[in-house]
Amino acid sequence: MPPCDSSLDALLDLHGQILVIDDAGYWVKVVVHQVPESAEKPHGLDYSLTMHAPDGDRLVGFDNAHPVAGRARGTGQDHRHRMRTVTPYQYTNASALLAAFWTEVESVLRAKGVWT
Questions:
Q1: What is the residue-averaged pLDDT of the chain?
Q2: Number of structural domains the chain divides into
Q3: Domain containing residue 53
């Protein structure tokens, strides 16, 4: 069993939230559920944190909805999307997931010139 994650309640409280993060219309959606622990979801979470452009295109995403190419079966499905690139993500706890997600969101908004 993974160690107790004191930040898990904060992540679970965000479930179903859609947050407009910029006057230009960029937005974030959070979906997270507790599920039984398994080889694919050893932390007992099914999650999707996504940031979208005003037109709805996904620009950033952290989720565990599907396996990642090159990752051995049964080693977890956690990964991140940035634009069209998908890379494995090493889930450690809810706080680290939220921090990594918001860091990526900020990076994309800065790269697009939305935030300075």
A1: 90
A2: 1
A3: 8-111
